[in-house]
Amino acid sequence: MPSSTSEKHTKPSVRQYLAANISTRHADLPLLACCFVTGIIDAGAYNAWGTFMGMQTEIIRKGNTIFLALGVAGLPTNRAPLQWLRSLLAIFSFIMGSLVSSAIARPFGPTRRLSLSISFLLQGLSILLAAIFITTDVIPTNATRSNRVMIGIPVLAWQFGAQVAASRVLGYNEIPTTVLTSVYNDLATDPKLWTWKNAKRNRRAAAAVLVLAGGIAGGWLSRLRDGFSIVLWIAGAIKLTIGLAWLAFGEAIADGPDV
Description:
The protein is about 65% helix and about 0% strand. It is mainly α. α9 (about 200-220) packs antiparallel against α10.
């Protein structure tokens, strides 16, 4: 009899379980998976649509901010029609993804199981929607010079904004998930770079490797006839898996990222 009373006090209801804040101790693992997603989508998107979805400011990778600036000057002369508008649309959608996802999650608690799960499930569904657009020929498979890509750009770019917002609230600023300039700088200037135990260095290095690996995978898949749609189906499946994985994370007990 005493055990049943104790169980009532220790076992939370479904509502309490979903409303609980997650433990962030291993939350870097889903974010590292997001780095792979960024690499594979951006490689496929740049090849098929001539625009980045996640890299908005990465000068080293010729992000959309630079594309927009060149477009204002009418350069390069061989670019697709309204290339500057594609870049502007991607940047705007990215910002709106960060803004709206943060605004919605903040009142409910951005690190709660349900908040994170819904956010990443919606991101995954958005990627799959873009895959459906390509599979059904709403957007041509290779649409470098077709303005129909503007249907798919907001769908993909907004979810990257929501992805970055999630990495911030989880406390892993060393895993921005979409850009690598700061990662390279922080690696090079880390005074503990050669220290054996350095969790932040390890995460930065893993983030760079995974974006590269995703980019290589996206590049090779893009060589196939329906390569970009395959890229999006894979990326969407990863995001949906992450969304479900948040539901299995343990409850926060005054913990945080390792240093």
